[in-house]
From TrEMBL:
Source species of the chain: Periweissella fabalis
Domain of life: Bacteria
Compositionally biased spans, kind Low complexity: 144-162
A matching Pfam family: HTH_25
Protein name in the entry: Helix-turn-helix domain-containing protein
One Gene Ontology MF term: DNA binding
Domain Cytoskeleton protein RodZ-like C-terminal: 224-286
KW Transmembrane (keyword) present: yes
PANTHER family associated with the record: CYTOSKELETON PROTEIN RODZ, PTHR34475
Cross-referenced InterPro entries: Bact_Cytoskel_RodZ, Cro/C1-type_HTH, Lambda_DNA-bd_dom_sf, RodZ-like_C
Keywords: Membrane, Transmembrane, Transmembrane helix
Length: 308
């Protein structure tokens, strides 16, 4: 094929490509022919192609891509182009799965980069997986150590609390054992000091005189018990301090402060009601009244009225 004929073919292909609005990159994408060969064809520089076989094959593919009849385009081509001899001794298959003969076996820069991409991706994935495994293992190890430290701390705190509780309990026990004789002695002394007269009955009222050196100056404890379910009220120096129901078999303890001079106890079901004052049983006379009032008059020394 003469040089002039080559230039005419290239110009026709370029004109058809531009008319279609295609770029060389578009033609390369559709034909899988490298752009440098397409550019050589358009310039009529067919010597840049790898051989006569590729001159016809590439030119025909180019023509089909831009809508030109390839046979008509190559009608005046020399016989070696129309019926080229094919030498496959140096053939190879490129990465685009196209077999090329007589071409330079040296891979292009793009081929080299493309061949390395899968390896790079695999290497990055391996590194990422190893990093994730390391992070998870490190996290589990840290969590395990924290849990172990927390358990040890909990055991230490619990042991400390137990020891402290034992010490407190021992101290409380000792203190109680030391204080009990004192309280008991005080109660016994207080009971000895108090004198409670026999009750004087007037209707549903029963009066008692409480005398002693400390009858007024010290506090006292009154315990009201009942064998039956009864309503009980207690007034100390005119002020109500108890107003509640006592169940059968239960008792109510009332603290009487120092300077108490009058206590009035009312029982709604007097039968079975008993009273203690500083652990002394109060002698309650029998009475047929269902509801009874018990009046206690406190006086220091022998100032209380003695009705006996």
């Amino acid at each position: 094929m003469s040089e002039q004929r080559n230039i005419e073919i290239g110009e026709k292909l370029r004109a058809a490509r531009l008319e279609k609005g295609f770029t060389l990159d578009d033609i390369q994408q559709s034909t899988k022919i490298q752009k440098r060969y397409l550019n050589a064809i358009e310039n009529g520089d067919f010597d840049q192609l790898p051989g006569d076989f590729y001159v016809r094959a590439f030119t025909k593919q180019f023509a089909q891509a831009v809508g030109i009849d390839a046979d008509e385009l190559l009608v005046n081509a020399p016989k070696e182009v129309i019926e080229p001899t094919t030498d496959l001794s140096n053939s190879r298959t490129d990465l685009d799965n196209v077999t090329r003969t007589g071409m330079d076996m040296e891979p292009t820069k793009a081929d080299k980069i493309q061949s390395f991409v899968p390896k790079i991706i695999i290497g990055v994935l391996v590194v990422v997986v190893l990093l994730v495994i390391w992070v998870i293992a490190n996290s589990l190890s840290t969590k395990s150590n924290s849990q172990q430290n927390a358990d040890n701390s909990s055991v230490s705190v619990s042991s400390s609390k137990v020891n402290k509780a034992d010490k407190v309990a021992d101290s409380s026990s000792k203190a109680s054992s030391e204080k009990k004789p004192t309280k008991k002695a005080k109660s016994e002394d207080k009971a000895k000091d108090l004198k409670i007269s026999d009750g004087q009955v007037t209707g549903n009222e029963t009066s008692f005189n409480v005398t002693g050196a400390d009858a007024v100056s010290k506090d006292h404890t009154m315990v009201i018990s009942s064998k039956n379910r009864t309503w009980v009220t207690v007034r100390v120096n005119g002020s109500s301090v108890v107003n509640q129901m006592i169940q059968a078999g239960d008792s109510k303890e009332v603290s009487l402060p120092a300077n108490t001079t009058a206590v009035k106890v009312t029982s709604g079901f007097a039968t079975g009601t008993s009273i203690q004052l500083d652990k002394q049983d109060v002698n309650i006379p029998d009475s047929s009244s269902l509801t009874r009032n018990y009046d206690f008059n406190f006086a220091a020394g022998s100032d209380a009225k003695d009705d006996n």
